Amino acid sequence: MFVSIVGATGYGGLELIRILNNHPQFKIKSLHTSSQFGRSLHEENAHLMHMKDKLEKIDPEAIAKHSDIVFLATPSGVSSRLISEFSDLDIKVIDLSGDLRLQTPGEYEYWYKKPAAPKPIIEEAVYGLSEWNAKAIKKSNIVANPGCYPTASLLGLAPLYTEGLAGAASDVVIDAKSGVSGAGKSPSAVTHFSEMNENFKIYKVNQHQHIPEIEQQLGRWSPGMQPIQPITFNTHLVPMTRGIMATMYIKVDRQTSSEELVDLYKTVYEDHPFVRVQPLAQFPSTKQVYGSNFCDVGVAHDERTGKVTVVSVIDNLMKGAAGQAIQNANLLMGLEETAGLWNSPLYP
Amino acid sequence: MFVSIVGATGYGGLELIRILNNHPQFKIKSLHTSSQFGRSLHEENAHLMHMKDKLEKIDPEAIAKHSDIVFLATPSGVSSRLISEFSDLDIKVIDLSGDLRLQTPGEYEYWYKKPAAPKPIIEEAVYGLSEWNAKAIKKSNIVANPGCYPTASLLGLAPLYTEGLAGAASDVVIDAKSGVSGAGKSPSAVTHFSEMNENFKIYKVNQHQHIPEIEQQLGRWSPGMQPIQPITFNTHLVPMTRGIMATMYIKVDRQTSSEELVDLYKTVYEDHPFVRVQPLAQFPSTKQVYGSNFCDVGVAHDERTGKVTVVSVIDNLMKGAAGQAIQNANLLMGLEETAGLWNSPLYP
Amino acid sequence: MFVSIVGATGYGGLELIRILNNHPQFKIKSLHTSSQFGRSLHEENAHLMHMKDKLEKIDPEAIAKHSDIVFLATPSGVSSRLISEFSDLDIKVIDLSGDLRLQTPGEYEYWYKKPAAPKPIIEEAVYGLSEWNAKAIKKSNIVANPGCYPTASLLGLAPLYTEGLAGAASDVVIDAKSGVSGAGKSPSAVTHFSEMNENFKIYKVNQHQHIPEIEQQLGRWSPGMQPIQPITFNTHLVPMTRGIMATMYIKVDRQTSSEELVDLYKTVYEDHPFVRVQPLAQFPSTKQVYGSNFCDVGVAHDERTGKVTVVSVIDNLMKGAAGQAIQNANLLMGLEETAGLWNSPLYP
Amino acid sequence: MFVSIVGATGYGGLELIRILNNHPQFKIKSLHTSSQFGRSLHEENAHLMHMKDKLEKIDPEAIAKHSDIVFLATPSGVSSRLISEFSDLDIKVIDLSGDLRLQTPGEYEYWYKKPAAPKPIIEEAVYGLSEWNAKAIKKSNIVANPGCYPTASLLGLAPLYTEGLAGAASDVVIDAKSGVSGAGKSPSAVTHFSEMNENFKIYKVNQHQHIPEIEQQLGRWSPGMQPIQPITFNTHLVPMTRGIMATMYIKVDRQTSSEELVDLYKTVYEDHPFVRVQPLAQFPSTKQVYGSNFCDVGVAHDERTGKVTVVSVIDNLMKGAAGQAIQNANLLMGLEETAGLWNSPLYP
């Protein structure tokens, strides 16, 4: 099966290339970029010196002719324009941007400060949280690949909602931390090495655009699918390249224990090979999923406060972006969910 | 004035030496260690190659004869033993360990898993949160220097409590992050470079011994000084050497706004040069206090959730340990609070 | 084909496991350790939580019965003892330690301060620098896998020697730098995070045990295979986990130019997919081979000094250890040299 | 005494501010910048939130009226223009750029690719390697503050030249490594955190503009002050913020030993408090001078090769830039050489 990538030279695009180079069924057919077309991929990417691929212009019709799937690894605001051009063509689209994730255009415009994608396309798009939406993904033509923070947060919170321990009225605090690659490839003062190294920063305090994405999905899991109470959500930059940890605090609706919670999580994720639930009293570090598609989750009940602590880690470029996109592509095409993704984390 | 340090070769002791080398009034009289006495300080501390000091045995009587103040930069469990030997002697003691911070011996023994210090000594010890306890510190003989996390947390939360926005029943979540020097100088698997680099870890989930210290102090600030609701408090290791950030979420008891909060914080800390309150909508990073005694605080009201977000940063070895110890020594001795501590942060 | 690993829990052993998990022909049959047998592999290796393997005692006869190859990922001094037990059994051995690399026992004992392996075994062992010794490796029973620094250095210098630009009398300076994982998994003061982070260290000045290994191999490439002039070789620790760079300065024996050198290197390595020669005036960084088996080489002639500068980078745990070991295993077993190793570097 | 800084917002300027804030005799009179004038210093420098200073336009006449010394912390090419405006005014100038260091304009233009400063100014400028040129500095009006790499290299090599072990014909290899702050404050692809973190890079291979500066100074120390043989000099970026190590290899002109060399270095630097010579068989790491004005040097004779290894470390922003500039200002003004600079390194 042939796939193409639009936005091949950003970190998301490069990670797709890395995975696809070892994928048993998918073959990269073409790589596209709005700015560097005509050049060789390896020119500004010395790590890919062994590859001969050229970068091409973005030509949806040509892409649709030779590829089964196109990945849009383009920034928010760009995807929504491209998606319209692809939507009439015979090709599956997986969009890694935030453009198709929010079902309410007004919400998108409020949080992203940009025009929303056309309503029919938003409605056609399926939210690609692979472990929880596989049925819909398999039948879809357009997948809205989840954000990195929502992936970590939602995989960590899901069992509480689906098993009835939390609901629309629950008080949820998500304190999230990310490696710097989440900020993308463009140099800036914030990500300048001498500023970011040996530093820990908070950013977009109470205003991150992933807030409505998490709330929307939690709402779907709540009884009656009603809108949930606003969540508290903050994000920090860690002086490292890859990795996200979401540390989450939730007041649950009934008595429970750490033992019960670990059992419940293990049961829920039994058939989901990419979610690894930690044993009782153990919690994950970001490095234990480095370069892999795993999401590792630890959970505990704090008897003093009655709150549940959930700790969830992913590699932001893998399960948080390109890895989950390939996982969704596998689902779309009826392949093994783990095809091309079953590598162990790089360690140390 | 002469000072001595017991536990001179740990990170706390070395930081005291660094500060004291430039202090206008204090002069190091002697350096003590339980294990390396007889050797020269610089032998295992190449950064102090310009110093000639020898390391000596711990001899409280001799120390009390030649020094006005002794700093105990010793681990919890060791300080409580030493403190008894110093308490009858004519010398002021500043203890950097956790041994004298908790007023209830049972609490200490529950959280530290060690025997508590003698009750009379605990009662004599004054909690050395300099900005909030200066009067008592000035008259004391024994100062219990606060923990690193409590310092960052309490300086960030104090105005909410003292100004009546929060109280004993408030729901408080503190998500704290620390550089690795907080784990001390002894090598371990957790702090092995290849394990900790490019990694973000959570540790002691819901069980950190700084929890009761924070709760005790918040209780003192609450109306009626009643015990407060258990707080949620967690700690993480950041792949950097120095710096602590406490990100805090509090449901406050009345309507407020970010503008009001910033003003209130600025007023509260007006005469406290080491606490720098950020302008509206700005939040601190750990690096902006690197190597300094500042505590920088940003505060905002989240209109969606009604919660207040407080972000507080310190250098864990300075304001979080040795710096605050010197600040307390300055208070004890009637010096300028800032003597020897008024250096700008190292940047970048 | 079945393989086993002795010393499975060190960084070399874990990296072998990571590669083998995705190898198309090799299957891990058993994992062995002298200290942790009886436990599950994932117990102290959370990144391998998805694996069920048990750690077993070291039993050469049992291993030889069920495996075609055994990897000894054991420290120097341990391998030499184990190797004797395996040498009479029907199994191929690939030793990752330094025990079988030096042909002269006296040299080994001088540099390693340990007794050398038995002479017949040393003589049987083939030096596993895959690109330069493939013929001998294919026919061997025992492979002495090269050291990390020698691999980077020798792949960078080889063309100068084999093409007659350098020889036994050449003045060679190798200034090498390594990520900290090269120092192994045991915590120590040197590799304690707070000591090593934001630090750059030199170690074993003029005394690294890889010196004789490099000299021995350069001697084999020199005309008449005569012993070469002592080389200058030093090693540094970089505050990063993975990666080696060898920066090398050689006075060559005839006039040349950067253009000629790049062409010459490209020709020499044309059929060696893991060695990627940089274009003219470009030089590699360590990150461009991260997690991969590539060795990237840049070369230039300095017209001012008449010296040649060669810059060679590898991932020390891959091409510098486990990766090359698998490459040698592929050669031994008649597989594609790249089997299981053809992944792109992790980037960024 | 009053001082002003032109180029106050770059890393060199900010480091001058940090030092001057604690200097016993110098007081900052004004801060100047070509782009951000009119703003407050702390606006983009949160670490200086406790300072009230404004940034002003560059007005040489006004500066000369109120200040005794002006520091030019401006880029190469800018200083040479400014210097002419200051040279007729009654003010001492210390230039941190490379514009006044090379005595031959043609050399400057070849290496810097820019027009040289006016010949009379170049001739008036004194090379500010404090330990070796104090007499001339004390009498000068214009100081050319040395480059960071030349400072580390020259302090490490000087004794070999001045004591007759090396000379114009010596073969010198300098392999230098720097923290990333040496690349300045402007974000770029090279210094983007995700690119530079966990990476080790070589740059400007054989072409660094500090080469002629080192050669010029070595020539002055050589017998007859003749031009020396071209040196081999290369530079690397280390994933850390501060610190330079120069590892140097020199064939010396007579028999020697490590013992003799260490003694000789100790004697040479006996009265120079900022140069700390390591004991026999010990070598410095960059962190042991972090944030200080020390240059630590280790030296050894390699009996195998007959070469001398010198390892020299500095903090590139201190002894390599702002620290040495203040040291030179102290000399200029007849103060203690160590005034305002005698702080211990930040550790860990």
UniProtKB/TrEMBL annotation, chains A, B, C, D:
Write the gene name: argC
What organism is listed for this UniProt entry? Peribacillus simplex
Write out the entry's keywords from A to Z: Amino-acid biosynthesis, Arginine biosynthesis, Cytoplasm, NADP, Oxidoreductase
Alphabetized CDD domains for the sequence: AGPR_1_C (cd23934), AGPR_1_N (cd17895)
Q: Which family does it belong to?
A: Belongs to the NAGSA dehydrogenase family. Type 1 subfamily.
The name on file for this protein is: N-acetyl-gamma-glutamyl-phosphate reductase
Active site (record annotation): 148
* Known pathway: Amino-acid biosynthesis; L-arginine biosynthesis; N(2)-acetyl-L-ornithine from L-glutamate: step 3/4
Q: Where is the Semialdehyde dehydrogenase NAD-binding domain?
A: 2-140
Q: Main role? A: Catalyzes the NADPH-dependent reduction of N-acetyl-5-glutamyl phosphate to yield N-acetyl-L-glutamate 5-semialdehyde.
Kindly give the SUPFAM superfamilies that the UniProt entry links to this protein.
Answer: Glyceraldehyde-3-phosphate dehydrogenase-like, C-terminal domain (SSF55347), NAD(P)-binding Rossmann-fold domains (SSF51735)
